[in-house]
């Protein structure tokens, strides 16, 4: 499979840190589904570490093309039926798994993937999950985004940025990636990693996913409620509406936040050591052979659950 190439030099906005701080404040004001139902929340308290890691992997595998509440409910149903561990999946009938994870997107194909992955983990990893990006991406139904998030949440390793549709969309809207050259989530990951300090890689997915679920939505984004409406190049806010700084002050009052976000200067305490320097241009290279999280043949209309 051929992948689009992108080779360019890109300089991110000089006020990117200010944008980031404002998104943090907006996220405090507007809780999102990912805050309580994300993959970092699924691990069963008191369970063995390898079982918790498997639960995180399962949550990520089910999350593709599926909203967080549906993914969360599917994982809970697997747990309730003693199936959210390697032996449980291997001992279950594929049809039973389908019924439990429905209506997750592509639930039938995901049931197949879960059976295959469980068999691989038992045979090759002593019923644990791989601890490398390469190992995770070799698993059926696991792509780059899932692998990086799994490394972060299951192993505590900051291997890269997990880029889903929210991170991909918002990065382009904010001008954090060259939108004309970056067309896929994987290209967005490489573009962001080319300039964003590594210390922010782990935070950025959770931050932007929640922001995309509540404010910077795919259609009709709530620019009038966004603290970046005076900075974002894609803002649709019209004159006379509340400015971003006004919204920031409101968010701080509601949550008791004491961090001050200046309109023209990045807070010294929050800025990286290179804040006062221009971020150097770096070439963006697209890695070949990147695996899709769902095969093209799977991207068809979701079938209805059989009446049985």
UniProtKB/TrEMBL annotation:
Protein source organism: Aceria tosichella (wheat curl mite)
Keyword annotations of the record: 4Fe-4S, DNA damage, DNA repair, Endonuclease, Glycosidase, Hydrolase, Iron, Iron-sulfur, Lyase, Metal-binding, Mitochondrion, Nuclease, Nucleus, Transit peptide
Keyword Transcription: no
Tagged with keyword Transmembrane: no
Subcellular location: Nucleus; Mitochondrion
TM region positions: none
GO biological process, one term: nucleotide-excision repair
Coiled coil: none
EC numbers: 3.2.2.-, 4.2.99.18
Name of the protein described by the UniProt record: Endonuclease III homolog
Biased segments, Basic and acidic residues type: 284-308
Reported function: Bifunctional DNA N-glycosylase with associated apurinic/apyrimidinic (AP) lyase function that catalyzes the first step in base excision repair (BER), the primary repair pathway for the repair of oxidative DNA damage. The DNA N-glycosylase activity releases the damaged DNA base from DNA by cleaving the N-glycosidic bond, leaving an AP site. The AP lyase activity cleaves the phosphodiester bond 3' to the AP site by a beta-elimination. Primarily recognizes and repairs oxidative base damage of pyrimidines.
Pfam family, one: HHH
Cofactor(s) needed for function: [4Fe-4S] cluster
Residue ranges of every copy of the HhH-GPD domain listed in the record: 62-214
PROSITE patterns: ENDONUCLEASE_III_1, ENDONUCLEASE_III_2
């Amino acid at each position: 499979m051929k992948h689009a190439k992108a080779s360019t030099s890109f300089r991110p906005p000089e006020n990117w840190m200010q944008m980031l701080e404002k998104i943090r404040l907006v996220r405090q004001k507007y809780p999102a589904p990912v805050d309580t139902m994300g993959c970092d929340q699924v691990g069963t308290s008191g369970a063995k570490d390898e079982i918790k890691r498997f639960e995180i992997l399962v949550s990520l595998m089910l999350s593709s093309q599926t909203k967080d509440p549906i993914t969360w409910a599917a994982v809970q149903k697997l747990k309730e039926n003693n199936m959210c561990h390697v032996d449980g999946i291997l001992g279950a009938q594929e049809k039973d798994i389908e019924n439990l994870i429905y209506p997750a997107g592509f639930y039938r194909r995901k049931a197949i993937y879960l059976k295959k992955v469980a068999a691989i983990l038992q045979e090759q990893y002593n019923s644990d999950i791989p601890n490398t990006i390469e190992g995770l991406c070799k698993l059926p139904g696991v792509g780059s985004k899932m692998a990086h998030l799994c490394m972060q949440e299951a192993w505590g390793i900051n291997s890269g940025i997990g880029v889903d549709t929210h991170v991909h969309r918002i990065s382009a809207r904010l001008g954090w990636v060259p939108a004309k050259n970056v067309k896929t989530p994987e290209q967005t990951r490489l573009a962001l990693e080319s300039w964003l300090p590594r210390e922010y890689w782990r935070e950025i997915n959770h931050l932007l996913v929640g922001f995309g679920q509540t404010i910077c939505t795919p259609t009709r984004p709530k620019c009038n409620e966004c603290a970046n409406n005076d900075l974002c190049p894609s803002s649709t806010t019209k004159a006379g509406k509340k400015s971003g700084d006004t919204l920031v002050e409101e968010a701080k009052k509601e949550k008791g936040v004491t961090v001050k976000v200046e309109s023209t200067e990045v807070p010294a305490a929050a800025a990286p050591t290179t804040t006062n320097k221009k971020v150097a241009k770096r070439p963006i290279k697209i890695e070949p052979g990147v695996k899709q999280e769902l095969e093209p043949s799977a991207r068809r209309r979701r079938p209805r659950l059989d009446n049985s």
